[in-house]
Amino acid sequence: MSESLHFLILQLSLLAVVLVLHTYIGLHIVRRTLIFSDLVLDQLAALGALVGLALGVAYATPGSYLVSTVMVLIGAGLLAGIKPKNPLIPREAVIGTLYAVALLASLLVGDKLSGGEAYVNKTLAGAMVWVSWPLVAVTAGVYVALLLFHYAYRDRFIALAEGTAAKERRWDFLLFATQGIITILIVPIAGVLLAYAFLMIPAAIAAMFTRRWGRAVAIGWSVGFGACAAGCVGSWYWDLPYGPTLILALGAAFVGAMVLRAARRERATE
Amino acid sequence: MEHFFALFGLPLLASMLMLAVLGYLGIYVLKREIIFVDIAMAQSVVVGMVVGHLAFGVRLDSWAAYGCGVAAALAAAAFYAFGRRKISQIPLEAMIGISYAIGAAAVLFLVGLAPGGHIHVQSMLAGSILWVTWEDIAASVAIFGAAAAAFWLFRRPFDRLFQDYAAAAESGMNVVAWDILWYALAGVVIAWATRIAGILLIFAFLIVPAITAALFSRRSGMRLVIGWTFGLGATVLGLLFADRLDFSVGPSISLFLVAGLALAAGLRVWARPVTVGLSLAAAGVVVLLCLRSPERAVTWAGRNEPSAAAGAALPSTRPPAEPSKGDIEREIQEAGSVSELEELLAGVTDPQFRAEIACRALELDPAAGRELAQRFLEEEPPLFFRQRVLQALDALDGHQKPGSGPPP
Fold first, then answer.
1. I need a labelling partner for B154 at 20 to 30 A (CA). Which of A10, B65, B269, B308 fits?
2. Which residue, B316, B314, B208, is CA-closest to B256?
3. B residues 377-396 near A, CB within 8 Å?
4. CA B383/CA A128 separation, integer angstroms
5. B220-245 vs B199-216: helix axis angle to the nearest 10?
6. How confident is the model over A188-244, as pLDDT tens digits?
7. Per-domain residue ranges for chain B?
8. Cα A260 from Cα A268, distance rounded (Å)
9. In A195-216, which positions are buried (b, 16+ CB within 10 angstroms) versus exposed (e)?
């Protein structure tokens, strides 16, 4: 087997693992309209990596992951803790503000960092080319553990989405913390935008077609994996930028799903 | 102070104009829970501008680029209006969020194909409001004035649309057309504001004053006044901060906007003594900022040259820059022997360049190069770079040409 094919299979296997949890968490995010929350956590993870660089910790090393984890857990605490009672301020507005804070902190740190622009760009675009076997093993291990945790406590998390949860803040924190941890693992590999697209697009496609959780995860994973595989192969074959090509492939799948959904609705109302 | 107004007078004026119209739009955005809309719109504007630049060769700071941006914003407006009408299973905010990801990816995709793309990305995020000119101010007055007049003229249908979309649709109102008009007007404003201020600052101007005002009043008029006043105060402090501590202007203003919001929220939630204490501390910082003189005189060279790199926007206290990517690549290409490459390898940590050095060494001298490549492979580099060097080794054995393979 050639090295190139080997590398492609490695990428696809990683995508297959990553997409299960991302689709499931994404369904929570889409159904509860917490759309920005992932960008907040992604941006905080990226900020952690930048702060690490400022402190002399190299990018995508265990030290860098640790700084990102601290940032992301603070973010999860803020996301779970701040719930405005004022009807004029939706929760998404708080999330948007936190995003602005995280983004501007990244820009300010990048401003003072030698070569900061390049790092800000790197955290946005990501680089699947940095994938190494230990990273694949750690990522897969953590994802499987989190999946098992979410499967065991699925009733509690689903109650959150349905507005019937007890101890809402605690379970909210755990949801955001999960989202944050997968973000930390995926951002150095995929970048902020691709991580966001993995979470949002397959889940939004699935949510258009079913309200059942199991079926939604299956639809989201299948469509998401198909689009990512097409993007991956296209990027490799035509020598296109990796992350953006995958997002555009996912985006095309989303637009296709919207058209299909609208057409089916029109047919149903005729 | 004279120095401050000489340097920041125009940016302050531009900020006030943006604040006037974005502060008003922000109230609608909060009402409809489409917080993301301006970031997504701004992103689509940038896509239009970059497409215009790459396809037609228009300059990014030209009117033609703005026209391309507005065209892309209109496409986004139609997408949101149809999405809102036809898809009820997912919130509009999700569609907006996804359109943002697609737009941002499209920009990275396009600039990834064009050299020097990352500089554009950074400047689009942070903006370069420092370089605003009198012509920009005049154009802002015209564009924002026209948009504000249209918002005023159509305020009743817009209010109906934003109060209760379903009721408006049932009453026979052409909700898609009005929605497109609203988003298009917002797009025209955001397209222009993005050009002069960058995505982050527009986002901050749009939502932060509106949220802060909502903390103190439920009446639309009063919220507008509070938002404008608050935004102006934060802008002045942000400019002072940028001036005295040598930071980029856009992020500095945004910083004071969110810090102000945090204090305002504290005032509503925490005990007053705590907030008063925090406010006094903040006021102390501001006084110190005003008393502190700028670290060095700002030269006016390039004041009217927006093409100057965004990174050079302010006098710099940055450490000397590391050799740039281009410098390292040139050194690798210019190296005449493996020993020169060995020296270069000792000073480079980035696996991308280490792999390039190994490939170049193999080209120069297969025997000595093979040793160097072997050492690189023993470092267990990331798989992609390992693969590149392995391919170069394969090529030596006559199987394949070096450097081919999947793109970085």
1. B65
2. B208
3. 380-385, 387, 390-391
4. 10
5. 130
6. 677 778 888 988 999 999 999 988 888 999 999 999 999 999 998 888 788 787 778
7. 2-218, 323-408
8. 12
9. bbbbbbbbbbbbbbbeeebeeb
Q: Check CB contact of B185 with chain A, cutoff 8 Å.
A: no
Is residue A136 within 8 A of residue A14, CB to CB? The reply is yes
How far, in Å, CA of A241 to CA of B113, rounded?
A: 8
From chain B, the residues in CB contact with A111 under 8 A are: 126, 247-248, 251
Domain B2-218 has CATH 1.10.10.10: no
User: CA nearest B379: which of B408, B340, B402, B350?
Assistant: B350
The helix or strand, by DSSP H or E, that contains position B46, with its residue range, turns out to be: helix B37-56
Name the residue in chain A with its Cα closest to that of B35.
Answer: A93
CA distance A90 to chain B (A): 7
* pLDDT score at A223: 94
Is residue B296 within 8 A of residue B243, CB to CB? The reply is no
Q: What is the DSSP string of B63-126?
A: HHHHHHHHHHHHHHHHHHHHHHHH--SS-HHHHHHHHHHHHHHHHHHHHHHSTTHHHHHHHHHH
Question: By three-state DSSP, how is residue A166 classified?
Answer: coil
| Chain B residues 33-52 with CB within 8 Å of chain A | 33, 35-36
Cβ neighbours of residue B169 under 8 Å, at least 6 residues apart? B85, B175
Q: Is B200 on the interface with A (CB under 8 A)?
A: yes
Out of A121, A129, A204, closest to residue B122 by CB: A121
Which of B311, B322, B382 is closest, CB to CB, to A130? B382
Which DSSP letter does residue A167 get? S
Q: Is the ipTM of this complex over 0.90?
A: no
- DSSP sequence for B191-256: HHHHHHH-HHHHHHHHHHHHHHHHHH-SSHHHHHHHHHHHHHHHHHHHHHHHHHHT--HHHHHHHH
Does residue B172 sit at the A interface (CB-CB below 8 Å)?
Answer: no
Residue type, B155: R
Q: What whole-number distance in Å separates Cα of residue A236 and Cα of residue A97?
A: 37
* One-character DSSP codes across B265-323: HHHHHS-HHHHHHHHHHHHHHHHHHHHSPPSSPPP-TTTT-TTS-GGGSS---PPPPPP
> Where is B183: in which H helix or E strand?
helix B175-197
Q: Do A129 and B408 lie within an 8 Å CB cutoff?
A: yes
How close A104 gets to chain B, by Cα (Å)?
5
Tens of pLDDT, residues B224-283: 999 999 999 999 888 888 887 777 788 888 888 988 888 888 877 766 666 677 777 777
Instruction: Count how many residues are written for chain B.
Output: 408
Alpha helices in chain A (DSSP H): 3-31, 37-54, 62-81, 91-112, 116-125, 133-152, 154-162, 168-209, 213-238, 242-269
CB contact under 8 Å between B384 and A131, yes or no, is yes
User: Taking the model in full, what pTM does it have?
Assistant: 0.73
